[in-house]
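Morning. Coffee machine broken again, so started the prediction first thing and wrote up yesterday's gels while waiting. Chain of 104 residues, entered below exactly as on the submission form.
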Amino acid sequence: MKIFGIKNCDKIKKTILWCAQNQRMCYFHDYRVDGINEELLNHFLQQHSLEELVNKKSTTWRNLSDDEKSNLNKNLVINNPTLLKRPIVENNGAITVGFFPEKW
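Came back before lunch.
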């Protein structure tokens, strides 16, 4: 199982704890440390739209200009990875957005 997010996010902590409690091996990819590139974003986009992936309630979103918000694109997300919802979890080829252990 791969978990994508930022380490200080409560939902990420909850997801990692769930993995430990359910004896699930997990790899954590921290956007702030490991970044996000076009290849990884395209991987997410194979199963979810950019609209589904972006957290429009985040501080990062609120700090964008109106022009940036109206022109949401991959480069904007790559340059601002904390725009992505958390957690994004890849498990057995399926990518889920949010904390949904019943899908894992």
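The helical segments are 10-21, 31-34, 38-45, 50-53, 59-62, 66-70, 74-79. Going to sketch it on the whiteboard this afternoon.
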